[in-house]
Predict the structure.
Amino acid sequence: MNCPRDAAVLETKSIGQTSVQTCPLCGGMFLEHGQLNRLADPTPGDLEFSTVDGDSFQHEDEYGPIDCPRDADIQMRKVDFNIDTTIILDYCPGCHGFWLDRQELARINEEVKRLNEAGAAVPDPLLVRISQFFWNLPLPH
Ligand SMILES: [Zn+2]
Ligand SMILES: [Zn+2]
């Protein structure tokens, strides 16, 4: 795979138990589906789900749009990490992978630490689905 920003060949790097594709030039990294949840510091809930679910996909960041390094013909979408943060990731609707630019993983872990300290719950897919189910029930007359 090549870096979607500068076309450098991505290198495999181990972060803890997880092997990720990283760019030696710009410090970005590609995360396969599920890898963000494994790489980020532990927190209750599902970070990938909360990042993608309910997002308008319309925010711009300082970096331009890119194509997924895995799916060359799919443009990644901009998504806010979790909720109400300034961390904007690139998400592939095809393979559900994420592109993290330099320092974004460190910023994610700062945010996770803040969430954990605040006792803030990261949305859990099952709980969100249950609440959406009740939300959609017709009001009693
Ligand atoms: Zn790069
Ligand atoms: Zn993809």
Observations:
- The radius of gyration is 16 Å.
- Strands lie at 11-15, 18-22, 29-31, 77-80, 88-91, 98-100.
